[in-house]
Write a structure and sequence with these properties.
Elements lengths: L6 H12 L4 H13 L1 H24 L1 H7 L1 H26 L14 H16 L2 H10 L11 H29 L7 H23 L4
Length: 211
């Protein structure tokens, strides 16, 4: 279909990769536990929007620039790591009660939801490893004689995005069912502290990543 092959294997591979713990899963989980299912869905949509950008980049050949240029890869890597550290700092401040009001339980207005979407988008789109992943995985399922390879990239990217959306929305549902444990102030602070530490660790791991 659209110049691709072994589509079922690709779907299974995508599901396994989506279920692998990482920044996207952590961000969606923490936002759901902190602010409820709406924030979790918005976070997931931001991440999905980032995957759309990576799919378009792979189809247009822009992702190849990150693979070929050490300078470009390093620049995006450091920007992404700095952003993760900024998120970690905000969560650690919230853990001490300085970042947000201590009475906050849910997202009160549309502006925070917009911020959550943008944060989810940036955590994904500023990760050069995601771009290289798309560039490395998708061509394996595109026929060598495909008449329109960019279309094949877009099709496989769409399949991957749908898989990722289903997984993230399921994660939101599971996290929402356990959210009553996050209503306690001390539990919320602990979640922020753990999330901040994990984001900082992911930033360090991103800095150490090689092309």
């Amino acid at each position: 279909m659209f110049g691709t092959h072994d589509l079922l294997l690709f779907v299974v591979t995508a599901l396994v990769l989506n279920a692998t713990p990482g920044v996207d899963m952590l961000y969606t989980l923490t936002r759901t536990l902190q602010h409820g299912w709406r924030a979790g869905v918005i976070a997931a949509l931001g991440i999905i929007a980032g995957c759309v950008v990576h799919t378009m980049a792979a189809a247009l050949g822009l992702a190849a620039l990150l693979a070929a240029s050490a300078w470009a890869f390093t620049a995006v890597k450091w920007i992404g790591a700095a952003y993760l550290l900024w998120l970690a700092w905000g969560m650690l401040r919230a853990a001490t009660g300085r970042g947000v009001a201590t009475t906050e339980v849910s997202v009160p207005a549309s502006e925070p939801l917009v911020r959550i979407f943008v944060q989810g988008f940036l955590t994904n789109v500023l990760n050069p490893k995601v771009a290289l992943f798309f560039l490395a995985l998708l061509p394996q399922f595109i026929a060598a004689d495909a008449a329109n390879k960019p279309l094949a990239f877009l099709f496989l990217g769409a399949v991957f995005i749908v898989n990722g959306a289903v997984f993230l929305f399921a994660l939101v549902a599971l996290a929402q069912s356990a959210r009553r444990f996050g209503a306690n102030l001390y539990v919320r602070r602990a979640l922020n502290a753990i999330g901040g530490a994990l984001f900082a660790a992911l930033a360090v791991r991103l800095v150490q990543a090689e092309r």
